[in-house]
Design goal:
alpha+beta; Butyryl-CoA Dehydrogenase, subunit A, domain 3; four-stranded mixed beta sheet; four-stranded antiparallel beta sheet; 13% strand; binds flavin-adenine dinucleotide
Length: 396
């Protein structure tokens, strides 16, 4: 695929490359290369986040009115492609990509003034408190309750699979404020200070040995009513807006293509059967890249194509799992190493042999199983696509 950039776009790409050459240090690249989880961990991403914030590019997909650089879809794609190719750490999305847009779309002026600057500076680290034991795909059945008491809600319940909650100082959570109405109508969206009395975080270790996930227990946690986003009972609509941002749109393909290229280079020469798999994965990722671009351009034009943006996350999950399976097969015994429990950048893991693509292949393979689960499982995505497709099939 030959995408020709305009002169202005080429100049922008050169500006991004020049910035990456100086701001993305070898230590940052190395930390990113040794990350086996979905996101880098704070030790790795903080310096990179600070460099982006100083340049004004941290919130690169926010509109200018909310404090973003005001880039269009193609600029964002160029930026993501260059960052992925350069091996930049993948920043956690819970703050910047998920709660940020909720705040500038639904937050009051006071809430925006309070929370957006701390998000931009990285002072607030966010976790997502949606899922509960028994309420994942069927999220509307959630039971964490928030009972009004004066100017506070008193929140009691349990969240689970809370990514990076061990590092977070804020949690955005769906809570039940009314049990008497239909499930979706009784949910509200609260911002919870993790330092509040009654918040307990317990680790869940993944099969890969990574500590990315947690349980979060909320026992009579007092949350000011002023920390509610939107009206009481409006939480479900806000959650749907947030999940659309989580699943659809942008940024998967550049990372997949860059990771696949690094894998093929590190494992060269691949035997013909594996080389054929690599080529097929590349074709899938390139097709996904075009779909992502079409989607974000259509969103920019105010015409979001629901089934296509749902398909983006589904296909990205399949390609991600295909790449990690290829890595395990390509490196033989070296690809089966699974270091003991460790932080999920394993640079110092004892006895890790070969390049990170080999040494972390098994951990990444196991972690990548989660791609078809988080943010809505692939089965659920397929159902939603099937429901939405008949109305728009002509537009595909
Ligand atoms: C790595 C990882 C990170 C995560 N991070 C977060 C986070 O930060 N915050 C957060 O709130 N949540 C997080 N989650 C939770 C995630 O959103 C849920 O795991 C997911 O929505 C599935 O819910 P469940 O685990 O309860 O599985 P279930 O909903 O119990 O599903 C079990 C199986 O049944 C299938 N199934 C269920 N219902 C249907 C149906 N109607 N039709 C067909 N098949 C169905 C599912 O596809 C799945 O295969 C994370 C999960 C993972 C794995």
């Amino acid at each position: 695929m030959d995408l020709r950039l305009t002169d202005a776009q080429s100049r922008f790409r050169d500006e991004v490359r020049a910035f990456l050459d100086t701001a993305l240090t070898p230590a940052m690249r190395r930390g990113a290369a040794y990350t086996s989880g979905v996101f880098a961990e704070p030790e790795v991403y903080r310096p990179w986040q600070a460099a982006l914030a100083a340049k004004g590019w941290l919130t690169y997909f926010w509109p200018a009115a909310a404090g973003g650089p005001g880039w269009g879809a193609v600029q964002r794609w160029i930026f993501e492609t260059e960052c992925a190719r350069a091996g930049a750490p993948v920043l956690p999305g819970m703050g910047l990509k998920l709660v940020g847009p909720v705040l500038y779309t639904y937050g009051t002026a006071e809430q925006q003034a309070r929370f957006l600057p701390a998000l931009r500076s990285g002072d607030h680290v966010w976790a997502q408190g949606f899922s509960e034991p028994g309420s994942g795909s069927d999220l509307a059945s959630l039971r964490t309750r928030a009972v009004r008491d004066g100017d506070d809600y008193v929140v009691t319940g349990q969240k689970i699979w809370t990514t990076q909650a061990q590092f977070a100082n804020w949690l955005f959570a769906l809570v039940r404020t009314d049990a008497a109405v239909k499930p979706q109508a009784g949910i509200s969206f609260l911002l919870i200070d993790m330092a509040s009395p009654g918040v307990t975080v317990r680790p869940i270790l993944s099969a890969s040995g990574d500590h990315e996930l947690n349980e979060v227990f909320l026992d009579d946690v007092r949350v000011p009513v002023g920390n509610r986003i939107g009206a009481e009972g409006e939480g479900w609509a806000i959650a749907k807006f947030l999940l659309e941002n989580e699943r659809g749109g942008t940024g998967y393909a550049p990372q997949l293509l860059a990771d696949l290229d690094r894998l093929v280079e590190a494992a060269a020469p691949l035997d013909p059967v594996l080389a054929d798999r690599a080529v097929r994965l590349r074709l899938e990722a390139e097709a996904l890249e075009m779909t992502e671009l079409r989607t974000v351009i259509e969103i920019e034009q105010g015409n979001p194509p629901a089934p296509r943006s749902l398909a983006v996350k589904l296909i990205a999950s399949e390609v991600r799992q295909g790449i990690e399976a290829l890595a395990v097969d390509a490196f033989g015994l070296a690809g089966l190493q699974l270091p003991e429990h460790r932080p999920f950048h394993a640079e110092d893991a004892p006895g890790l042999v070969g390049p990170p693509e080999a040494g972390l292949a098994a951990a990444r393979y196991l972690n990548a199983r989660a791609w078809s689960i988080f943010g809505g499982t692939s089965e659920i995505q397929l159902t939603l696509i099937a429901r939405a497709a008949p109305a728009t099939i002509a537009g595909w």
